[in-house]
Write a structure and sequence with these properties.
The chain has a domain of 182 residues: Metallo-beta-lactamase, Chain A, CATH 3.60.15. The chain is built from ten helices and twelve strands. Helix 6 runs antiparallel to helix 7 and helix 8 packs across helix 9. The N terminus is likely disordered. The structure holds zinc ion (ZN). Zinc ion binds next to loops.
Length: 328
């Protein structure tokens, strides 16, 4: 980038001028990665998880080959390195024969093509439709699709796939490994952390708020959420539910108490400016007590909170009809 695009003095921004945030709880941080940039660990029996500290994938070794769950491009070729490491240690096959897609997003399956044309790709019917639309060679469309339920059996192992309504995306599925006491549900709950921007950029906010309830209906002990430091527990999902309940309660108070009239009085015919002033003020009011309660409890409780509160506030207005003004 040329200097003039950065302004007159491109060196003027220093780290001391960047915003400071509450420390991340020690329990939320990722395990150290190796010299290749990944960490691989056992979840339960022959189920493993692999992370680069930002993204998570998982794989199951079987006598007939490896079942891989997602292929984030940020982990990329380290997926096979992690599988090779475990396969050598346990004297089991290292060939990925099946690749299960959690949902269509490129940041979770954009390394799919690394596993070649012979891998059996399994995903929701909507995942196939969205991938055909994207026409991205890095993400071949699934060969095997399902609408509500599918049981994948490989090498004597059972993997139950379920679609229980839209949440983060229209196609996001619940991947349950009953014999490994594990549930994989990506981009809904990030154990130990507050949500990513705009409530995980969820396309369906009410569906995403309800998804942890669906997740807890399954019997499991280990949870794989797809991002950041660690595996999750049932307590992590309960904490996330409380966090969302607190946001909803504070948004409801803000919608009932913030007066929009001063914003319209100030901005006159600039309606968007008035609406922005009102929504920003309501979001900030709702966010403040949530930040105070969760700083030091969830990582980054104070980082994306305003956009997450705004996403939930707008959904409460538009999806639920709360806080709208009825002309007298
Ligand atoms: Zn996603």
């Amino acid at each position: 980038m040329s200097a003039h695009l950065l302004g007159d003095d491109p060196g003027s921004m220093t780290t001391t001028e960047l915003p400071a945030y509450a420390p991340v709880p020690e329990s939320s941080t990722a395990p150290a990665v190796n010299e290749h940039g990944y960490y691989v660990g056992r979840v339960e029996k022959n189920l493993y998880w692999v992370t680069d500290g930002g993204y998570q994938a998982a794989f199951l070794t079987t006598p007939d080959g490896v079942v891989l769950f997602d292929a984030p491009p940020s982990i990329g070729h380290n997926l096979q390195r992690a599988i090779d490491e475990i396969a050598v240690a346990n004297d089991v096959p290292n060939t990925v024969t099946h690749l299960v897609y959690s949902h269509h997003h490129a940041d979770h399956i954009g390394a799919s093509s690394l596993f070649g044309a012979d891998v059996v790709r399994i995903g929701h019917a909507e995942t196939k439709r969205l991938l055909l639309r994207a026409d991205d060679p890095a993400r071949p469309a699934p060969d095997v699709t399902f609408d509500t339920k599918y049981t994948l059996q490989v090498g004597g192992e059972t993997i139950n796939l379920a679609w229980l309504g839209s949440n983060h995306t229209p196609d996001n599925i619940y991947i349950h490994l009953p014999d490994h006491k594990t549930l994989i549900l990506i981009d809904v709950v990030i154990p130990g952390w507050a949500s990513f921007a705009a409530f995980n950029v969820n396309s369906d906010v009410p569906g995403s708020i309800a998804a942890p309830d669906r997740a807890l209906d399954f019997p499991w002990k280990h949870f794989i959420g797809g991002h950041l430091g660690r595996l999750g527990t049932r307590e992590d999902l309960a904490l996330h539910q409380q966090y969302l309940a607190d946001i909803v309660a504070n948004v409801r108070i803000a919608l009932a108490t913030v007066d929009p009239m001063p914003f319209y009085a100030k901005y006159g015919n600039n309606t968007w400016a008035a609406v922005k002033g009102y929504l920003d003020t309501a979001s900030a009011q709702a966010a403040a007590p949530v930040v105070e309660k969760y700083a030091g409890v969830l990582g980054a409780a104070d980082v994306f909170i305003t956009s997450t509160v705004f996403a939930i506030l707008e959904s409460m207005r538009l999806d639920l009809g709360e806080g709208l003004f009825l002309h007298p």
